[in-house]
Amino acid sequence: MTPTLAGRIQTRLFMLGTVGVVLTALIVPVLPGTHGGLAATYKSAFVMLVAVAVVGVLWELLYHLLMQFRWDKDWPTLFGLVTILPEGLVMFLLLRAGVVPGVGGKVAASTFVTMFVFVWIGVWLFSNGPMRVPFVQWRLRGGRLL
Amino acid sequence: MPTTHAHGDLTPQLIGTPVWYDQAVAAAGIPIYDAPFVSVGGGLGSFILTDVLRIQGAPASAIRVVSTSETPWQSWEYLTRVSQLPVRERIRSDAGARPDNLWGFPSYAMTEAWQDKSIALAWQVLVEPLFADFFAPRAGTVFATVRKEAERISYWNMLAQGQVRMVRRRAGGGYFTLVTPPAGTTPTKRIAIRSRYVHLAVGYPGLKYLPDLQEFRETYNDYHRVVNAYEPHEHVYEFLKTRPGVVVVRGAGIVASRVLQRLIDDRERLGLQTQIVHIFRTYVQGSHGPGVWMRRKGGDGWAYQAFTFPKSAFGGQLKAQYRNADADKRKQLSKAVGGTTTPPLRRWQGQLRRGRQGNWYHPMQAVVEKVEPTMDGRLLSHTRGDDGNRNRLVSDFVIDCTGLEADMAEHRVLDDLLRNGGARRNGAGRLAVGPNFEVLGAASGDGALYASGAATGGNHFLAVDSFMGMQTAALDIAADLAKRGFVRRLGPVRSTNQWLKWALNRSI
Q1: Cα(A70)–Cα(A73) distance, integer angstroms
Q2: Distance between CA B113 and CA B110 in Å, rounded?
Q3: Structure letter (DSSP) for residue B369
Q4: How many angstroms separate the CA of residue B285 from the nearest CA in chain A?
Q5: Which domain of life is it from (chain A) (predicted)?
Q6: Is A83 on the interface with B (CB under 8 A)?
Q7: In what helix (H) or strand (E) does residue B390 lie, and over which residues does it extend?
Q8: What distance in Å separates residue B327's CA from the closest CA in chain A?
Q9: Distance between start and end Cα atoms, chain B
Q10: Residues above pLDDT 90, as percent of chain A
């Protein structure tokens, strides 16, 4: 992909708001390590999704900076996959530190990893292909939708 | 009244009039046919635009493609073949740039992986360009997929054989495209197509040769030993199979890389003794560029780049920057990212390394001042290096891989458009076009004239001469035509529906 900064941020928010929401809704009922009712788990899960989006904007700023060292100003497919590691780790630490408001209680590592990996892979797969089908100009505008 | 022209041919009056009246064309005996949209060229540029227009709802009957080519890939196939890119070899193009598929999904990598049942290709596109070279499709894959798409959109029904002589504005709006059909196919020498819209995708005006090589050819009438890589030159490789020889290769782009590959493939496969002297006019020592944010890799003479421009010129940061920049900034950017480059493919790197180690590949920096024949019928190149050193090289052949482009006015239709059609040149000497690829100054009433491809370089978009560049132009032209009511908008619903039809190979 060859994103612009605006394209990165728009794509991140759009992906989490569509594919992310659908995948979260699907995975919550089968998440391991949860306690409390399904409604509470849904609430925590969607709060986490919002947190990934908000913190993600900061990550995009960093990625954009790093991309400037690349002559092609591109973001290889593999980068989109492996950035799951730093982003997942930081999000988990933020959750454990209790700085994400609205998440009730301690989130089990198994719960977090299952949801995070499932949503991440889904978003990554969708943005590396199917996204081009409804939005034909998306890849030609550096990932901008607006 | 005495006439000096045949009935149905151009008259001096028509030639001398920039805007034509229907009556004047009819009076010359030239039959007039109507079509709302005409695309001149019939190569991949025309094909890609007609594909987009058909997807956006234009019926095949509303479009005429006028061409001397029988297929959209004919000219491209010829040029790739003679420049040492047979159908099995991989071109220099991204996996997602598919002239047969506007969406670029699934990419050529996925299609080839599926066809070949090859995990390796899927793996390559996953880890490119970090742990593998960029994936690039085979030339043959492009031909085959374009053929399939041409069938699907009824391309053959839109194609009209003929040589376009000129496009003139029509009094009352729109254009006349004056065509010379193949001899004997029509009662008159010329026919005219009256249309509201015209699109020009005529490709390169022609090839230009290095001045010293041109002089050699003209002086000694020798087209055998000095060859251009874009011309058929198989005899060079055949000669080298029969006896050891020395070849001078000039140029530092993709074609030079391919010619070297062919020479070295033959050398290694058949055990030949070919010596290769490679002359770089600009010898790139290493990474280069205006600053830490813009460093292009290079070395061993070459400037390295995966595609003809940095990848983001096709649809990312550089495209946006360039589009928003003023004329001075554009010039600066285009200088920083321009120049001759080649992809640093692992296979080529290995071959050249073996050549240097084995002392049969000799890269050097020099400018060639003169080429002349020797007494025994070989070639003597007089060279001068940037360090002032003069040298004389004897070789059996010189292969010119520089690929210089001829001036736009060498193309008859473009020349006429500049003289009579209201079009003007931009700072780079190409056609000045607006953001929708509308040729500036050439509007005619409610009609519009568009262009895409090489002729539109130097405007708001760098990568015009590429599959993705032609798709970009096609989408922008079609968006403009949607505003004018000729086609529908390509919103998410139509786009998804049309993609499904593409995926199911349903005719449209």
Answers
A1: 5
A2: 5
A3: E
A4: 17
A5: Bacteria
A6: no
A7: strand B390-395
A8: 21
A9: 51
A10: 92
DSSP-derived 3-state class of residue B475: helix
Three-state secondary structure readout of B353-378: HHHHHCCCEEEEECEEEEEEECCCCC
Helix B44-55 to helix B139-152 angle (10° resolution) is 40
Cβ-defined contact of B315 to A133 (cutoff 8 Å) = no
Q: How far apart are CA A70 and CA B337, in angstroms?
A: 13
Contact B312, B318 (CB under 8 A): yes
Residue type, B349: Q
The answer to whether the CB of B169 falls within 8 A of the CB of B419 is: no
If DSSP codes are grouped into helix, strand and coil, which group holds residue B204?
Answer: coil
pLDDT digits (tens, 9 = 90+) for A34-79: 888 899 999 999 999 999 999 999 999 999 999 999 999 999 999 9
Q: Identify all chain A residues contacting B297, using CB atoms and an 8 Å cutoff.
A: 71
Residue B285 backbone dihedrals phi, psi, to 5 degrees:
-85, -30
Rounded Cα gap, residues B314 and B317, in angstroms = 9
Whether residue A133 lies within 8 A of chain B, CB to CB, comes out as yes
Q: How does pLDDT run across B106-117, given as a tens digit for each residue?
A: 999 999 999 999
**pLDDT at position B5:** 65
Say how many CA atoms lie within 13 Å of B462 toward its Cβ.
31
At residue B296, φ and ψ (nearest 5 deg) are -100, 140
Q: Residue B85 — φ and ψ, nearest 5°?
A: -130, 80
DSSP track, B416-455: HHHHHSS--B-TTSSB-B-TT-BBTT--BTTBEEEE-SGG
What residues in chain B have per-residue pLDDT under 50?
Answer: 1-3
- CA gyration radius for chain B? 25
Q: Are strands B175-180 and B163-170 parallel, antiparallel or unpaired?
A: antiparallel
CB contact under 8 Å between B316 and A142, yes or no, is yes
Distance CA B397, CA B233 (A): 10
How far from A126 is each of A14, A129, B211, CA to CA, in Å? Answer: 11, 6, 52
Chain B contact set for A8 (CB, 8 A): none
- Is the predicted pLDDT of residue A104 greater than 80, yes or no? no
d(CA B179, CA B177): 6
Contact across the interface for B305 and A71, Cβ inside 8 Å = yes
- The CA distance from B45 to the nearest CA of chain A, in Å, is 17
Domains of chain B plus CATH, in order, are 12-74+143-205+407-503 (3.50.50.60), 92-136 (no CATH), 207-285+341-405 (3.50.50.60)
Whole-angstrom Cα distance, residue B386 to residue A45? 66
Helix (H, G, I), strand (E, B) or coil at B181: coil
For chain A, give the mean pLDDT: 96
Interface test with B, best of A121, A127, A133, A145 (most B CBs within 10 A): A133
Q: How far is B354 from chain A (nearest CA, A)?
A: 28
The answer to whether residue B346 neighbours chain A at the CB level (below 8 Å) is: no
ipTM of the predicted assembly exceeds 0.85: yes
Q: What is the pLDDT of residue B1?
A: 45
Q: Do residue A77 and residue B125 have CB atoms under 8 angstroms apart?
A: yes
Residue B398's alpha-carbon distances to B222, B282, B300, in angstroms, are 11, 18, 21
Residue of B191, B288, B247 lying closest to B393 (CA atoms): B247
Please report, to the nearest 10 degrees, the dihedral formed by the alpha carbons of residues B13, B14, B17, B20 taken in order. Answer: 130
Selected for mutation to probe chain A from B53, B102, B124, B317 (highest A CB count within 10 Å) is B317
The answer to whether the Cβ–Cβ distance between A135 and B292 falls below 8 Å is: no
Q: Report d(CA B221, CA B381) in Å as an integer.
A: 17
